[in-house]
Structure formats: structure tokens, C-alpha cells
Amino acid sequence: MFLVMFVSLYTSRIVLNVLGAEDYGVYNVVGGVITMLSFLNSSLSTATQRYLNYEMGKNNAKALNKVFSISFITFCILAFFAISIAETVGLWFVQNKLVIPIDRMSAALWVYQFSIMTFAVNMLMIPYTAAIIANEHMSIYAYVSIVEIILKLGLVYFLTIINFDKLKLYSIMMFIVTCLITSIYRIYCIKSFPECHLKFVWDSKLLRKLFSFSGWMLTGTLGRLLCTQGINILINMFFGPVFNAAKAISTQVYSSISSFSQNFMTAVRPQIIKSYAQDDLKYMYRLVFSSSKLSFYLLFVLCLPLIISAQFVLELWLKNVPDLAVLFTRLVLIDLLIQSIYSPITYVSQAANKTREYQISITICYVLIFVVSLFLYKIGCPVYTTFIVSIIIDIIGLFVRLIVVNQTVKFPISAYLKSVIGPAILVVSASIIFIIIINIIINQFTDNMLGIIIASLIIPICIVWIIGIDKSEKNLVRNLIYKLFN
Length: 486
Known about the structure:
Blueprint: H1 2-35, H2 39-57, H3 61-96, H4 105-134, H5 139-161, H6 166-192, H7 204-239, H8 241-277, H9 281-308, H10 310-318, H11 325-351, H12 356-378, H13 385-409, H14 413-445, H15 449-468, H16 471-485
């Protein structure tokens, strides 16, 4: 993950310099229109993985193959409908509503068409990645990620030497990379998992269960989509593509850092669902509490040095930093920390198949972020306002989630606050106090940013170890370290 993060950040710097801020912004906002259709992917992917894990908990091999086969057939049908929407409503929106320089409209349409094809390929890959996660074969992600990052490095190299419209070339090559990665996943799954041998079966009862579960997941996904790509479009309409480039940079940092937490939670989610299927609620809650804390601490240790040294790091990374990219980056990292602490709660509602109330509540939060941002933009507030709105509503949303899960699956709120929120607040407060003191001491002798960065990395680790985790979690960390060095 560290290798992928650093190479991704490096390639983003080269792509930004080669394309320029305007073309980079065009690529992200046009591709974002297709990303808006990916709400179908994430909701059905979660449903597929949930039912695969549930059947694994029940040791039902025949049902496993049925879940996979019906999921794949469903994704094929949905891919057709999604492409139809993209080529009609989506194409009209790009040509008539987005703010794109006239001389770059042709290139933008190239980006759009190849984004549609990339989206379709990704959609058909989802049942296979869901099977990998359900079977907990996490190492394949490491290997494939290394292959993907090597391919993207090659992409960047060709981008600099081939004499062709850079924006068009970038979209074509990203599509080729996606096709290659999809082929690797598919071949691995067919060879490794018996349930991935596709059979043309039909079970209307199972299909209704999948759509019922994914239907409510879809509600939350649409809200999330409105909050991300919708905000991206608002920024484009009110402020222009240059600020889309600044947001794209902050989003790149957000994605690179959040991938650590996402992969950590990807490993935990199957265990939460399987423990619920086996009626081992005590183990499930222990998993939720520990994973909430550890995922927050992992991101806190990574985010704090970046928040403090954002200006220095972005200048070192990009050289030419788009306007407000530093502020955007700091704000999205703060928001990411808040989101990381409540993500495991989502898996409890999914395991219990009690998603309706939960998804409605988070959808309201997402819609509020979009609506409030639109209102504030209309009255003349600055472009960074939406990030502040998102932070405030996400803090409120944490407690909304706890209340909803408590009412639907009797989630122990008081134990969660005591075991997770309390230690997290102590760790953040103590870390900030010590770093302020160290900063004052360093500045009395030298203006050394590197010293501050090192201090902001080491201090949180020490504080997490001393007051952030309990005895059993310390033993877990010791065992992991022992296995690494053994």
C-alpha cells in the first residue's frame, strides 16, 4: 500500500504537469459524470459480498455458486442499462451543462466515451473482486496493485514521449490498464474459487433478496454520489475547471490515504458478517470496536504529518500547486478521519440485513451537504465552504448512525463511546498538545519543517501505544510485528 500510494502520487504529479491544470480538471469532471453511474456497482457489490459471506458462514457451497452466477448475470443487464443512460442523458449533460473550453470539447468527448467503456469493464469485474474479499484472499490485492502501478508508470512514460493529444491519450491508456487488471482478477478467481465457475441459473427468490438489500444500499450510494461528484459539478459550474483540478489533487491525496483504512476494513468485513451468521455477537462487537479504533489510529498517524506540512508536501510533489489545493487537502483529511471511525458500524447493519433505516439516515446527511453547499455558493460563499459543511455534518452523522444501529440491532452505544470515541479524543488531544510544544522548541533554534514532520509522525504512534489501545490490542500488534520479523 505504501508503494502504491507513493507511485500514485508521483504519477499524478506527472499527469498534472503534462496535461496542465485545465485539462486535468476537464478529465476529472467529465470522468466524474460516468462515476456517478457507479452507484450501481457499489450497492450490488456489497450485496453480492454479503450473501457470499453469509453462505460461507453456513457452509453452503451450492448456494455460493448460485449467488455468484446470478450476481454476474445481473451486472451484465445493469451494465447495458447504465451505458444506455450514459450515451443519452449523460452525453447531453456533458455537452450542454458542464463548463468546458470550446477548443477542448472534442477531447472531453473522447474522455467521456472511454470513461463509459472503462466503467462497463469495471462493472463486470465486481462479482470477481467480491469473491476475493469474501474468501479473504487479500494478498492478491497486493500483487495486482503492484502490477497496476507498474502499468500506470508505463502509461505516464508514454504520455510524455508520444506526440498526440495528451488528454485523449490518457483516457485511452487508462481504459487499456483497466482491461488488463480485470483479466487478471477474472483468471485468478476462476482458478481459485469453485463458486466462480459461471452457470446460467435463475432464482427469483434470491434475486429479490439481492435487490432488496442492494436497493437500500443504493439509496445511501446515491446520496454519497451527490455529495462527491455532485459537489465536483457545483464547483465546475460556480468556479470553473481550474478549481476542479485543485479538488482533484485533494481527492487524490484522500484516496491514497483512505486506501489504507479501506483495505484494513476490507479484511475485517467478512469476519463481521460471518460471526453474525454464526450468532457470535460478542466476537462481532469486539471486532467492530477494535477495527474502529485501529483504522482511526492508522489514518491519524498518516494524516497528521500531511495536515501540518501540506504546503511543503504538495510543492515537493507537484511543483506547480493549483490554487487552494493545500486548503482543500487539509480539510478533506480532517473529514477522512471522522469518516474512518464510524465505517465499521455500517457492516453491523449489513450483517443483520437491517439496512433500510441506516441507509435513509446517511442519505439525509449526504443530501444536506449538497443542498447546504449549493445554497452557500448561491449567496457568494467561497469554494472551500463545502468542505467545512461536510466536516460538520459528518460529526453529526456519527451520532445519527449510532442511534439508528442501536434501534435496529441493539448496538451498544455506551460501550462504543467508552471503548472507541473516548480513547480517540484522548489520543488526538495529547498528540496536538505535544506537537505544539515540540514545534515551539524547534522554531526557537531552527525553521526545520523536516523535524516537525518527523515529530508529528513519532508522537502519535507513541501516544496510541500508551493510552490508545488496550492490552489485547497491544498483544495483537506484538504478534503482527513478530510475524513480520519472523
